[in-house]
Each structure stands twice: as C-alpha cells, then as structure tokens.
C-alpha cells in the first residue's frame, strides 16, 4: 500500500497525533536516568512501550541520538524497529537536504529496506531547491514511503527566508507547498509538508493532497485551539499535530506516557471536530 493510504489508515485507527521521541538531557535527568547511552536506551525503550502502541505517528528526533555517535545510532535503530513493530508509522526527524547525488545516499539511509535506519518517512529540507530532493521523491514513491518537507517552520527565525518572495510572486514556503502538491497529484500523500502551529502561516494548503505535520504544540506554546484557527480552510483530515516534550514530561512510567498521548490526541480531536 502506498504511503498516503497507509498514513490515512493509521490516523483513522489512532487519531491525529505525531508523538515525538526527543531524549533531551534535561528529560533524561527528570526521568532519573544518566545522560549517557544507557540512559538514552532506557528512555527510548520506555517510549517504545508507552507511546508507539497508541500514537498513529512516532517521530524520533535524530539529533538526540546522533549526539552519542555510533552507539546513539544503534539505539535509534532499535527504537525505529520497536516503534514499527508496535504498529506506529515512524517518521524520522533527520531534516536531510543536499545536492541530488548526496541526497540519494541520505535516501538509502532513511528509506531503503536494507538500511537499519529504514523508516516509514523522513523529514527533508528543500532549501537547496525542491528539485534537489528528486532522488528522495522517486525513492519514496517507489518504496511506498513518505517525505515531510520543511515549508513554514515553527521557530521564530524561519520567517525571513520562508516568507520571502520568489520570482513568480508567491512566498518561498508557498512554492514548496505547490511543488509538493504537484508530486501528490500523481502519487497521493507521498509528500507531506511541515507547517508550525506557533503562528499564522499564510499558506494555501487546499491542493496539497498530503499530510501537514504541525509541530509546536505544548512546549513551544501552541494549543489545540490554535490549530483549528490556523488551519481553517485546509483539509483537516491531513493535519498531523506534533508534540514531544509536553508528552515526554509524563515519563518514565509507560502507562503515564500512554495516558499523555491519549489526552493530547483527544484534546486535538475535540478542537478539530
Ligand atoms: O518546524 C519545526 C520542525 C521540526 N520541529 C521538531 O519537532 C519537535 C518539537 O518538539 P517539542 O518538544 O514539542 O517542542 C522537535 O523535535 C523539533 O526539532 C519543530 O519543532 N519545528
């Protein structure tokens, strides 16, 4: 099954929420774990047990594993496999982007079955030009996997670049949404976009035909009520709000993590209904 219908099935079964696995040092300490590879492994294991069986999409933040080098990557591999086994769609938040020939290698790392990091989808940066993502677009389509392309990010610094105007008159962010929509017209749901929940985005998302990952809930200040306002007019069935720290602060108990996922999801579903 291609990524779009698979994603739609997961969200229909589990609700609209992407739960992040972001093992910040501060969270490891709050959970009573050492800031070490052993602490990282225990943290990730608790997330696999508490979050992955209930969240539609789980998003490991690669940076927090990468900071421990090869041992951290080994924990990430186990985490990806464990989350997929628990039935979650795994979106690895790696934000890769480079010239096309290098992009092909990133694509092998994150989307090829033979790779131990293979995920259902990966975040990518289009700021070397959307066309530079072509190897990833082709591979995602051929392997029934997904890409999530940064369009209008949740951080305050993104606007200067993302809101600037391109030759054709629209914003850079809108040009990325439009390029994603063009791919999705032939291959529905292959390309999602990232649009933060923290502010008005000014984008026309009506023709996207793919998921809208919206980080910023909780720790960055956005609320479920903000989502309904900011995404008015978009096809809300594609909206995928994301939260990490606000859920993870309930750990390390697996049952408490599970309850935090369910409460966040219910709040979102109520606000969007
Ligand atoms: O625009 C973006 C793109 C990605 N992120 C990532 O999402 C999570 C948010 O974590 P919180 O703890 O819920 O703030 C994190 O991994 C970011 O790197 C984003 O926040 N904004």
Automatic annotation (TrEMBL):
This is Orotidine 5'-phosphate decarboxylase. It catalyses: orotidine 5'-phosphate + H(+) = UMP + CO2. GO terms for molecular function: orotidine-5'-phosphate decarboxylase activity. The gene is pyrF. Gene3D superfamilies: Aldolase class I (3.20.20.70). It comes from Gordonia malaquae NBRC 108250. The keyword Cell division does not apply. Belongs to the OMP decarboxylase family. Type 2 subfamily. Pathway: Pyrimidine metabolism; UMP biosynthesis via de novo pathway; UMP from orotate: step 2/2. Keywords: Decarboxylase, Lyase, Pyrimidine biosynthesis.
